[in-house]
Amino acid sequence: MNTIHIYSNGRLEEKESGIVREFPLVLHVNGREIATLISSPHDLRFLVAGFLRNQGFVASAGDFHMLAVCDDFGIANVRIKGELPERLKPVLTSGCGTGVTFTMESGGGAPARGNLPTVSPDAVFRLMAELAQRADSYKSHGGIHSAAVGDGEGNLLLFAEDIGRHNTLDRIAGEALFKGIDLEGKILVTSGRVSTEMAAKCAMLGIALIASRTSATDMAVKMCDKAGIALIGYVRGGKFTVYAHHGRLAVATPAEAIHELPLRQATGRIPGVTGVILAGGQSSRMGSNKALLPYKGGRFIEAIHRQLSEIFDEVLLVTNNPEQYDFLPCRKVADIYQGMGALAGIHSGLHHASNPAAFMVACDMPYLNSGLIRHLATHADPGGVLIPEGPHGLEPLHAVYGKGCLAAIETTLLSGQRKIISFFSRTNVNRVNVEQVALFDAYFATFSNINTPGDYYSLRIGEREGDETFPAAGRIAG
User: Fold this and answer.
1) CATH architecture assignment, domain 121-248
2) Model-level pTM greater than 0.70?
């Protein structure tokens, strides 16, 4: 651990934190020093093997006579069956740490493939969500790229992370080589930009589709187009941009595309998402703190906390009066931007959440539908907003927000804007439409809230009579 200092609100605060390690590895092949790989210091044999595979120097595990890595001195000694070309022409790439390749001009020497399988968007979303959940180093330290390979159903097969995005693909190629995993026709998802060396390596490996959370370069697009690889960027929420070979996507026709997101009923606690309860303001229309009103044998907010605890491993309460909620067994956090309403509460909950995304809910919503919450959390976008739509419009106080929204929210708050939807134009927003919400809650009761004594009286009458199907509750405006 290292001592760092965080600047916030005019102060420098000391903190212990890990810092991403950068490890230079000198690569000797058949007695010749051919490159220095700047990488992260783990699983280096996979990195070396994958690098040589992607350069076309080896094709199978049997091509290695010896592969030894000395971590103490940062040297890898390799002997392979074939001979290296007498003259190697290194090309510095745009990879983090300045990558090197010897084969970029030919695109890895791989021919264009016309028989690669089609891929469903659902498989891409599944793999990207799994990638986000596994990228622990990126979440805790920043500066680490991650990549994963999966099959056409979206099942993850291999995962790697490194300071260099090109290194992640080398690691995957090396591990696949040693484990006998065929990468032909598979999907690659990556956290980093797709540039030429990434496309060339994928062509070499027979990858059918490359998907990134960010962008692709023009040369990568040309290379993927030539090699027959589908290339996708900006995979966020339920959307992405296709740069090459859109025909490789198994997309439903408009008549078949009923829902914006696939339906999958998750069970158990959902990883990678924090549940956040917004304690709210003064409850002026109720005349007392509605979060503390009696309900279901306890207090109102206890029922919500209990429900979220069954869905999420972490539940937070955003409140500026934590002493009022000592009975709740969860962490309490205050607004960072005081007096800025619900948007400040969302910001604080997202800022303090340990996960890359958080499901936000108001403290006065008694009819929460666990199935709908699970559906939203399963499709959480760490870089944007996933928001359901009810008969009255968007429901910002029953939505999932990714940490990638923090900068946009802060900019909005600093400009003096308090309305939740004010920052939507600054980030990626995906909707779950009314028709899909209705599959979970035909009466949209989950979006109802308790604002007045009359609302509360109707709720208690329904509780006593065992009928909570038709709530007579009010609405929340975002």
Assistant:
1) 3-Layer(aba) Sandwich (3.40)
2) no
